[in-house]
Amino acid sequence: MNQGRKTTFEERVEIVNFTIAHEKDYQAAIEKFGVSYQQVYSWVRKFEQEGRQGLLDR
């Protein structure tokens, strides 16, 4: 199972935009960007609730 990796804010925005543009195809995002399902799902959810601000490092 993919453990994911560290990402920048810009990468998270790109990954979320890609995932949403591809009808929330999480598997495609996982394969293309080398991140985990949990990361992508969490980022998409935060983006939908808070916009880009939700993707900032805390």
What does this structure look like?
Helix 1 runs antiparallel to helix 2 and helix 1 packs across helix 3. It is built from three helices and no strands. Helix content is 60%, strand content 0%. The protein starts with 8 loop residues before the first helix and ends in an 8-residue tail after the last helix. It has one domain. The protein is mainly alpha-helical and 58 residues long. The chain has helices spanning 9-21, 26-33, 37-50.
Topology:
Blueprint: H1 9-21, H2 26-33, H3 37-50
Helix pairs in contact: 1-2, 1-3
Keywords:
single chain; 58 residues; mainly alpha; globular
The structure class reads mainly alpha
| Structure annotation, total helices | 3
Percent of sequence in beta strands: under 5%
* Total domain modules: 1
Order of helices and strands: HHH
State the shape.
globular
Overall residue-averaged pLDDT value: 93
Major sheet description = none
Number of DSSP E strands = 0
